[in-house]
Design a protein that fits this description.
94 residues; alpha+beta; 3-stranded antiparallel β-sheet; 38% strand; elongated
């Protein structure tokens, strides 16, 4: 069996995991990202020597409240992470 080299998550899956991790039970939420820029002498120049380069890095991932309707980019925390009392009530009804 081949060895797995990579795992990936969809935008929606990552958002759901973060909502649960932060213990959020209400509101609509979207992913947020903070970017950073790094510079240095790290990229080859056209002449073959080191050249000045920069990179854009994702510095932090998080969630923030969103005004939009639930979709693949915005999730309702009450649906993906109900409070324990709400989830017990839902199981009884089913």
């Amino acid at each position: 069996m081949p060895e797995i080299d990579q795992y990936s998550l969809s935008h929606k899956e990552l958002l759901e995991i973060l909502i649960k991790k932060f213990g959020v039970h209400e509101g609509r939420w979207a992913l947020s990202m903070q970017f950073g820029i790094a510079t240095g002498l790290n990229l080859p120049s056209p002449s073959g020597g080191p050249g000045l380069g920069f990179g854009v890095l994702i510095d932090k991932l998080g969630i923030q409240r969103a005004a939009g309707e639930p979709s693949g980019l915005v999730l309702d925390a009450a649906e993906v992470n109900p409070t324990p009392a709400e989830s017990k009530g839902r199981r009884k009804k089913a």
